[in-house]
Specification:
The protein is an alpha+beta fold. A hairpin with an 8-residue loop joins strand 1 and strand 2. The longest helix has 21 residues. The radius of gyration is 24 Å and the shape is elongated.
């Protein structure tokens, strides 16, 4: 087998390996997946919130701008413009 054919074959094989391995991470980044809120609750859920921690989430892709609170049932995505959310954050910041 000539060196030219061998070189082309190795090049094609290495391109296939690179393309195949990049498919596994396409559209993702290394590390934990950031939270996403596709929608927010509008009702007052103050009574369900546990702890004094919240996270602000910026809108990106299918995720809307939200404040994430912890509840005993999991995470709650709340409307950052809702008055009850603003009041709860202010109360948490005082503590």
């Amino acid at each position: 087998m000539s060196v030219k054919i061998l070189s082309i074959t190795l090049l094609l094989v290495s391109m296939c390996v690179c393309c195949h391995s990049s498919e596994d991470t396409h559209g993702r980044h290394p590390g934990p997946v950031p939270p996403c809120c596709p929608a927010v609750t509008k009702g007052n859920m103050t009574a369900d919130v546990v702890g004094q921690i919240y996270h602000e989430l910026a809108a990106r892709g299918d995720c809307v701008k939200a404040i994430i609170f912890d509840t005993e049932y999991g995470q709650l995505c709340a409307d950052p413009d809702a008055q009850w959310v603003k009041d709860l954050i202010a109360k948490m910041k005082k503590v």
